[in-house]
Specification:
The protein has helices at about 50-60, 80-90, 105-115, 130-135, 140-155, 175-185, 210-220, 285-290, 295-305, 325-330; strands at about 15-20, 65-70, 95-100, 120-125, 160-165, 185-190, 225, 235-240, 245-250, 265, 270-275, 285. By secondary structure, the chain is an alpha/beta fold. About 45% of the residues are buried. The structure holds guanosine-5'-triphosphate (GTP), S-adenosylmethionine (SAM) and iron/sulfur cluster (SF4) (2 copies).
Length: about 325
């Protein structure tokens, strides 16, 4: 790092950039996308791979070391491996990860690995084809399982499974996921449902809290023990079953927000910088990139965006306003 770090007004240092590569997706999870009539971004509005690399080369000297590719579904973006190849080659990028729904993973695991990707998070909320269809409004459960198996075979490590937990819907998945974690060697992370759905149907009553899941596991399966020291900047708290087999994580975004230690910011597929998942304002980096702004001008815009970041989300407050962009359009 050869410049001042990216600090916000509360002194939080921003080292983790999440890049959305598309808003398109091949499934329709109810907590993220509308069921139909989705209006996707115009292709010419998407940042090109060259532009994404330019953004990464701009922020690495400001202390960014960790990058995650997301979407929409990142694997529907053509030649994603090419982007991976470009980004792992940027000096200073110490950690590149990808979050995917896994539908296209079986076909792409090998080329992604060959391009230099190692860390993979696969989203899967249920362990039966019927429940998968209910949540995603599409078929594809077997393809996700095949994708996870292919990724393991190729050598990806770690592979984490992201399961959004929804009250009244996914309680019955908790114990099967515990068994899956033990048998597959993948860490399963239960994520609290956040108000980022396109239908604005989120209610607090639909959030299945991390503490409740821990309790269900302890009573119906086996108690959990914390793993290692907590890392405040990592949202997931990690546990292992009492017999030492099977890792489980919890991402309690609603009940125990981790905003005080947030080190993340995002760029949408159409090049808008967002200091928080729940931001109501964005910085139009694409216009600067395409308008021929100097590096200094762009760096100043990034710094200004981060500086004004708020202390944390307001999900639990009366003044909460859901952002206009749903999760698929922000980049999860
Ligand atoms: N509140 C909040 N939740 C987030 C944020 N980033 C990710 N999440 C939630 O955490 C879940 C897991 O995120 P992933 O994309 O798998 O990545 P990660 O856990 O940040 O990645 P690693 O720590 O590198 O494994 C997402 O599905 C979101 O629900 C964030 O900035 N704020
Ligand atoms: C938006 S998706 C993008 C990447 C990819 N399509 C996938 O599903 O992994 C990233 C993550 O956000 C999570 N997510 C989406 N909507 C959410 C919500 N309303 N609350 C909590 N997590 C959500 C998904 O479960 C997924 O793990
Ligand atoms: S969570 Fe991921 S897979 Fe599901 S609809 Fe959103 S972008 Fe697609
Ligand atoms: S909600 Fe905003 S401030 Fe809180 S952890 Fe997520 S991105 Fe950071």
């Amino acid at each position: 790092m050869n410049e001042l770090p990216l600090l916000d007004q509360f002194g939080r240092r921003h080292t983790n950039l999440r890049i959305s590569v598309t808003d398109r997706c091949n499934i329709r999870c109810f907590y993220c996308m509308p069921a139909e009539n989705v209006r996707f971004m115009n292709r010419r509005d998407l940042l090109s791979f060259e532009e994404i690399e330019q953004v990464v080369r701009l922020v690495v000297p400001l202390g960014v070391t960790k990058i995650r590719l997301t979407g929409g579904e990142p694997l529907v973006r053509r030649d994603l491996s090419e982007l991976v190849r470009r980004l792992v080659a940027v000096p200073g990028v110490l950690d590149l990860g990808l979050t995917t729904n896994g539908i296209l993973l079986e076909e792409q695991a090998e080329s992604l690995y060959a391009a230099g990707l190692r860390r993979l998070n696969v989203s899967l909320d249920a362990l039966s084809a019927e429940a998968f269809r209910l949540i995603t409004r599409r078929d594809g459960y077997e393809r996700v399982l095949a994708g996870i198996a292919a990724a393991q075979k190729v050598g990806f490590a770690p592979i984490k499974i992201n399961a959004v937990a929804v009250r009244g819907l996914t309680e019955s998945e908790i114990v099967p996921f515990a068994k899956f974690a033990r048998e597959s060697g993948c860490e399963v992370r239960f994520i609290e449902y956040m108000p980022l759905d396109a239908d604005a149907a989120w209610e607090r009553g639909k959030v299945l809290f991390a503490s409740e899941i821990r309790e269900i596991l302890a009573q119906e399966f086996m108690p959990l023990e914390p793993v290692g020291e907590p890392h405040p900047e990592i949202p997931a708290s990690e546990y292992v079953f009492a017999d030492g087999v099977g890792r489980i994580g919890f991402i309690p975004s609603v009940s125990e927000p981790f905003c005080a230690n947030c080190n993340r910011f995002r760029i949408t597929a159409d090049g808008k910088l967002r200091s928080c998942l729940f931001s109501l304002e964005e910085t139009d980096l694409r216009s600067l990139l395409r308008g021929g702004a100097s590096d200094t001008e762009m760096t100043n815009a990034v710094r200004a965006c981060i500086h004004q970041k708020w202390a944390g989300h307001h999900i639990n407050a009366a003044d909460f306003v859901q952002p206009e962009r749903p999760m698929y359009s922000i980049g999860g």
